[in-house]
Amino acid sequence: MSCIYGPHQIDNEDQGWVAHFLMRALEGQTITLYDDGKQVRDVLYVDDLVGAFLLARAEMPRIADQAFNIGGGPDQVISLLELMDMIGHLNGHQPEYQFQDWRQGDQRYYASDTRRFRNATGWSAKVRPHDGTKKLYRWLRESQPKTYVKQPPGSSVARSIHLSYIRIVS
Q1: What is the pTM (predicted TM-score) of this model?
Q2: Contact of 149 with 103, CB cutoff 8 Å
Q3: Which residues of the chain have pLDDT under 70?
Q4: Are residues 140 and 155 in contact, defined by beta-carbon separation less than 8 angstroms?
Q5: Distance CA 153, CA 157 (A)
Q6: Number of C-alpha atoms within 13 angstroms, CB side, residue 120?
Q7: Which residue, 21, 67, 94, 138, has most beta carbons within 10 Å?
Q8: From CA 69, how far away is CA 61, in angstroms rounded?
Q9: Whose CA is closest to 144, among 129, 127, 131, 157?
Q10: Residue 64 and residue 43: Cα distance in Å, rounded?
Q11: Top-level CATH class of 4-143?
């Protein structure tokens, strides 16, 4: 699975980076982008992931013992700078961000190759990056409204994080 995002996500800049960027912007904190921010990643909204899991469960007799990549794929890619623009549109102002040096081992472009799973099941991601980002932004605002009051950059804001787990049993 690659670059999954959505409600109830714990964020950090490496895993859960869409939520991480949104939460930093809502807190009024500076976001760090490495290199030039033009790195591209595929993103997959959690509802599409759940749909893939349910479809895999339904197709289990036919697809058992196979390995699949699940992510947004080439049709669901976004650059870090594009995400900054989306956040600015949603939040009414551009988030503060800074650039730091390129991180060793980072990739310029990554998109999961989901063709094998699509060919086996007919699945494809439905939630576009802009729509999923908007849904996550709204969830963050509604679930933690007191937390996301503009704070000065660098301030520490305590917030509660709610976890949800998905369990699929065959």
Answers
A1: 0.82
A2: no
A3: 10-14, 145-170
A4: no
A5: 11
A6: 21
A7: 21
A8: 19
A9: 157
A10: 25
A11: alpha beta
